[in-house]
Design a protein that fits this description.
By secondary structure, the chain is α+β, with helices and mostly antiparallel strands. The chain contains five helices and six strands; from the N terminus they run E-E-H-E-E-E-E-H-H-H-H. It has a six-stranded antiparallel sheet with strand order 2-1-3-4-5-6. The structure holds adenosine-5'-triphosphate and magnesium ion. It is found in: Cytoplasm. Required for chromosome condensation and partitioning. Belongs to the SMC family.
Amino acid sequence: MFLKTLEMIGFKSFADKTKLDFADGITCLLGPNGCGKSNIVDSIKWVLGEQSTKALRASRMDDVIFNGTDNRKPMGFAEVSLTISNEEGHLAIDAPEVEIRRRVYRNGNAEYYINRSPALLKNIKELFLDTGVGKSAYSILEQGKIDQILSHKPEDRRYIFEEAAGISRFKTQMNEAQRK
Ligand code: ATP
Ligand code: MG
């Protein structure tokens, strides 16, 4: 399972449709300060369902929508699509590729899609449980997160092992059942 493409429209500084193709192996994002490197990482977290504005370096959810420049009008929505290779069938969808898409409008309306069919945020979270991908899984390790992992209490570190061992799915289902 690996990231194949990322497409952004109106997300933060990426007003125009911007498509990144990830090759096999390691991808490095290079560029001067403020060119949008972290915004790309934010877009991946966002499409995977991140709901915390702090984690997205925003003060309100509509801060992820391109807010204009001196010579360009703000946009009305932001959209990110992430295509993941599923050749090995790690994601429980019978397709060699899985595309997840999230769109948000200035009025707060939000839409999610899995392989172009309308979906719920819950469906996206479920799809990635126990895969290591996901907004709080270990696939995104940012500056400081390594330190955090090393210095955290053992109980706080346990989630990484639970995700890798495939226990997260059952814990989530158990919590849901207990709430009902
Ligand atoms: P550094 O090397 O300093 O970490 P970076 O390449 O990671 O820089 P980012 O943080 O990704 O840079 O991008 C910051 C830029 O994105 C700023 O110029 C900021 O104005 C712009 N930006 C953030 N949100 C929006 C938005 N909603 N609309 C337009 N531009 C935005
Ligand atoms: Mg940065």
